[in-house]
Amino acid sequence: MDTLPSSLGKTAKAGNADDQPLYANRARIYPQKVAGPFRRFKWAVLILLLAIYYLAPWLRWDRGPGVPDQALLIDMPARRAYFFFIEIWPQEIYYLTGLLVLGAVGLFLVTSLFGRVWCAYTCPQTVWTDLFMWVESLVEGDRNARMRLDKGPWTAERIVKKVAIHSIWIVISALTGGAWVMYFTDAPTLVVNLLNFHVTNAVLFFIAMFTATTYLLAGIAREQLCVYMCPWPRFQAAMFDEETLTVTYEDWRGEPRGKHKAGDSWEDRGHCVDCLQCVNVCPTGIDIRDGSQLECIGCGLCIDACNRIMRRLDLPQGLVRLDTVSNQAARAEGKSAPFQLLRPRTLVYAGILSMVVALMVFGLTTRSTLDVNLLRDRNPLFVTLSDGTIRNGYTFKIINRLRADREFILTVSGIEGATLGVLGGSTGSRAAVFSTKPDRVETYRVFITAPRQSLTGESTDISFVLEEDAMENSENVIQDTVFMGPKK
Ligand code: SF4
Ligand code: SF4
């Protein structure tokens, strides 16, 4: 695949490279409206994704009293993330890692099968750029009308239309920024606070930041982000092979191209009538007849445009088509190569994907409502008390994920005559009682004191047993650690 943007390629070819600027000036793109199955599919995905993005924060999920009822919420002050029935604590950040791995491997799999479908239909840059272009064509008209307007003088009509377009873009951008913040705070409360001008500077900052980035990226930068800034087109070629579906031009059938008049023979010429419809509809302004290019996001709009021309000319459709390199080579020889769904790379991606899904489902279905973190003091390793006994200190963290008070009894085993003490609580006993509040992480300092003669060496293996003091559904945790003492 060509790794240079065509604009750069054209600059380099135009003459002595020393005389040329490094980058060509941006040529504004005026994509033409097009109808067809790819365009309809693109609209359907756009509407679905925008509906999910703007409406998801309004979904409610009853989690009981005192807990947020927003179905999707990242509650930063409470350090909790809610996804419907799943509640993720900061200690379970590995679930987020799992989600990122799932997203990445899923993208690799889809790309190796169907090419740049992410770029074409689901990337936020594509979705919002498409929406902004739709606004533009609604206000200014189709390609030719927009080009005429931009070439003409600054009349009142032009000023009014430009102001209208940029105002609508800013409103959409502000709604986008506002919706983003709603994933981090209660959506209805945020709207009420915004209407009452009663929001924090942090909220205003994030809304302003996402408003500005949406406006700049979808309204101004557009295809330049894909061509010059996004790393994904650069390394997605590693997922492509001869069986990957890409948008291709059948040059063996289209060339030699040329204008065609009604009644002219199709003998000794190709089916491409050089109408440039495939170029005019392209959102990145390229000519698919030049072959695979980094700028091609694989949206298929040129397929819709060319098929319309082929239908008009009563020629077979698919001069520009979604196809594999293998099938293209076979079709040029009058044969066909069926699409290969199962290939070594797709099987590897599917295998990794299934493994990560299975691990996450297992982790979520077997997760405990109780977690214990134990940290032994390193400095000092031990203390010798005035009566000759040895004392070690430990920090206990009990994570109670239930929305109820819980009581636990802590005992220690492994050293004869060892006693337990808790900072601010009981000392010298065989067991300690801990009470934890609902939905909280509680921290305790625990000291174990043992007679020197009970120690088996410099380090003695011991176990803490935390038993829930409840009749039913109790959870017990055993934590193995060591007790340090002086050299024998
Ligand atoms: S060349 Fe075709 S598939 Fe590629 S971006 Fe342009 S219109 Fe979309
Ligand atoms: S739309 Fe089809 S016929 Fe027209 S220039 Fe493109 S490839 Fe050729």
Structure write-up:
By secondary structure, this protein is of the alpha+beta class. Among the domains are: 92 residues, no CATH class; 115 residues, Immunoglobulins (Immunoglobulin-like). Helix content is 41%, strand content 18%. It has 16 helices and 14 strands. Strands 6, 7, 8, 10 and 12 form a five-stranded antiparallel sheet that branches. A hairpin with a 2-residue loop joins strand 2 and strand 3. Helix 3 packs antiparallel against helix 16, helix 5 packs antiparallel against helix 7 and helix 7 crosses helix 9. It is elongated. The chain starts with 5 loop residues before the first helix and ends with a strand. The N terminus is likely disordered.
- Helix/strand order, N-terminal first: HHEEEHHHHHHHHHEHHHEHHEEEEEEEEE
CATH architecture of the domain at 370-484: Sandwich
CATH superfamily of the domain at 370-484: Immunoglobulins
Helix share bin: 40-55%
| Largest sheet, strands/sense/barrel | 5 strands, antiparallel
Unreliable segments of 5+ consecutive residues: 1-15
- Helix/strand structural class: alpha+beta
- The total count of strands amounts to 14
Do you know the CATH topology of the domain at 370-484? Immunoglobulin-like
What's the oligomerization state?
single chain
Q: What are the bound molecules?
A: iron/sulfur cluster
Overall pLDDT:
91
Calculate the terminal CA-CA distance, rounded to whole Å. 71 Å
